[in-house]
Amino acid sequence: MTRTLKKIICAVDFSACSDAMISYAAEMGCKETELIILHIASENEQNKGIHGMHLHEFSRYSNILEPHGSNIRFALQHGDPAAGILGYAAEQQADMIMLGSHGSTALTRLLVGSTAEMVMRQAECPVMVMKTPDNQTKKHGTT
C-alpha cells in the first residue's frame, strides 16, 4: 500500500544534522508534497529577539530546496522542542515528521530524554529520524 504524503514537517535546529536532513527531504520530495520547515526556538531566544538569525537560516534552506522545485513553507514556534513539534504536526495534520538526531548517549536519554525519542513515541503520524554520521557533523563545525 502506497500512501501519498501531502504534508511533511521537517523539524530543524540549524545544525549540520538539519542541513543533511533538508537535503535528503529535497531529494525525496515530490512537487505535490508541502514541506514545512519548522524551528522551535526557546523562550530565551524569543526574549533576545534573534529572529534575524532564524530568517537567515530559513533563507539558506530555501536556497538548498529551490533547485528541487519543492513546495516549501517556513514556521517558527517557541517553547519545548518535542511538545512544539508534536503540537504543530497535529495542528497541520502532517502526514510525516522528519527530524535529525544528534545521537545522545544512553545515559543522557535516560536522564533527560531526547526530542527525537519523545516525538517518535507520541506522534500521531509516521516519524523519520535521520542520524548524521559523526564525521559529517564535525566537518560542519558542530558537535
- Major β-sheet, in short? 5 strands, parallel
Q: Give the averaged pLDDT, no decimals.
A: 80
Shape: globular
Radius of gyration: 15 Å
**CATH architecture descriptor:** 3-Layer(aba) Sandwich
Strand order of the largest sheet: 3-2-1-4-5
Helix content: 40-55%
Count of beta strands: 5
Cα end-to-end separation: 39 Å
* CATH class placement: Alpha Beta
CATH superfamily: HUPs
Family: Belongs to the universal stress protein A family.
Organism: Chlorobium ferrooxidans DSM 13031
Pfam family, one: Usp
Domain UspA: 6-131
List the SSEs and their pairings:
Elements: E1 7-12, H1 16-28, E2 34-41, H2 43-48, H3 51-65, E3 71-78, H4 81-92, E4 96-101, H5 106-111, H6 115-122, E5 127-131, H7 134-139
Parallel strand pairs: 1-2, 1-4, 2-3, 4-5
Helix pairs in contact: 4-6
Give an overview in words.
This protein is α/β, with parallel strands linked by helices and 143 residues long. The protein has a single domain (13-139), classed as HUPs (Rossmann fold, 3-Layer(aba) Sandwich), CATH 3.40.50. The protein contains seven helices and five strands. It has helices at 16-28, 43-48, 51-65, 81-92, 106-111, 115-122, 134-139, and strands at 7-12, 34-41, 71-78, 96-101, 127-131. It has a five-stranded parallel sheet with strand order 3-2-1-4-5, sandwiched between helices. Strand 1 (7-12), helix 1 and strand 2 form a beta-alpha-beta unit. The longest helix is centred in the middle third of the chain and has 15 residues, at 51-65. Residues 136-143 have low confidence and may be disordered. This is UspA.
